[in-house]
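Why do we bother with holo predictions? Because pocket geometry can differ from the apo form. Keep that in mind while you read this record for fe (ii) ion.
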Amino acid sequence: MATPIPIVRRTKLELGLDQDIPVHWHGGRAFETRMLDALSTLFVEGERFFISAVRHYEDRITDPALRAEVRAFMAQEGQHSALHGKFNDQLRAQGIDVDAIEALSRRAFDFVLNRYPRFALARTAAAEHFTAMFAESLLDADGLLAGADARMQALYTWHGVEEIEHKAVAFDVLQKVARVPYPIRALGLFDVTMLLTLRLIMIANQLWKHDGLGRRTRMGYSLRALGWLFGPRGFIGRRGRGYLAYLKPSFHPWQHPLPDGYKKWVDAYARVGDAVFASDLVHGAAS
Ligand SMILES: [Fe+2]
Ligand SMILES: [Fe+2]
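The structure, written out:
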């Protein structure tokens, strides 16, 4: 199925990530801020993993359209890695050992990439589905990013927009080039859902501890994290059926329509070239 929208390379984004950003940038809330910070610490190595998993099959791609999409996908993911890396420097300045978190991710990712490239691709395609669903929730105008610092809101909104644009690329490589069988593809979704949830909660705990939160609060927050992800109003939970559709053997990412926030952001960005303004518009802070 052809990509209905272009995968755009946006390289001159000004998000103000080198300015001072409050520690609890999500409206002063430690819970939400640190869940998203935990995600940010996973992006740098995570995006590299996705790029490597797809690159492994690049030489076997004969369709010129898919080749071009793969290159655009790599460019977008590379840019995501770079800008989250920039934000992660703020976490480093807070005294958080981001390097140790990334080193652990890198070792785990390299193990799979070197030994099981097909499974690395299945994990990547599933992670792209996870991030596309997560991105749709980020683009919802009803509050998941409400009250957040405008620069951080813009970072996640822009990232969300691009995750939606390239959501089918790894999947197409998996199906058309690597021809990964259905059971491995489905296993990829279980693997990503479980691992990502566990790792996110573990890292968020580390960050809450750094904030001085006690054990009981952290345990409560860990349970709340499950609702934040999979509850009926959660990032993945609110997409319910859309998320599970990945398990249908006939699934393709473009069977799912574009969310309203996507078009709003793209139109605003094309008009003014300002990712913070476009994000404000999506989240109702500009008109
Ligand atoms: Fe990304
Ligand atoms: Fe992605």
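Residues 47, 77, 80, 159, 163 surround fe (ii) ion (ligand 1) (CB under 6 Å).
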